[in-house]
Every structure is written in structure tokens, then in C-alpha cells.
Design brief:
0% strand; mainly alpha; transmembrane; 3 helices
Length: 64
């Protein structure tokens, strides 16, 4: 759950920066949001979730 919230916050911050700089329009952001909802309800959702969780585990294991 913490990984999901962190990713959502990171993507939200990036989206806000893009919208403020004019690189991302509101309509484009809405399309991306809809795509996310459709992906979450598709049969690919468990695979995407597992890949994201494994990537987070790898990144958290890195020691600079």
C-alpha cells in the first residue's frame, strides 16, 4: 500500500509540474487518468502491480 501511495504522489507531482509548465494539457492528463483506470480494471493489473512491486523492492535494496 505504501508503494502505491508513493507512486501516485510522485506521478501527481510530475503531472502538476508538467501542467504548470504548459508541457501537459488538462485534456492529456485526463486521458492518462482514464487509461490508468482502464488498466487497473484489466487482466493486466496483477502483472503491472507485481512488476511495480518488484521494481520498488530492487530500488529499495540499492545502497549508494
Amino acid at each position: 500500500m505504501a508503494v502505491s501511495i508513493s507512486v501516485v504522489l510522485l506521478l501527481l507531482i510530475i503531472a502538476v509540474i508538467y501542467i504548470r509548465n504548459g508541457a501537459l494539457k488538462i485534456s492529456h492528463a485526463l486521458i492518462c487518468i482514464l487509461l490508468g483506470f482502464f488498466l487497473a480494471s484489466s487482466s493486466m493489473a496483477p502483472t503491472l502491480h507485481q512488476g511495480l512491486a518488484e521494481t520498488a523492492q530492487i530500488v529499495s535494496g540499492l545502497h549508494p
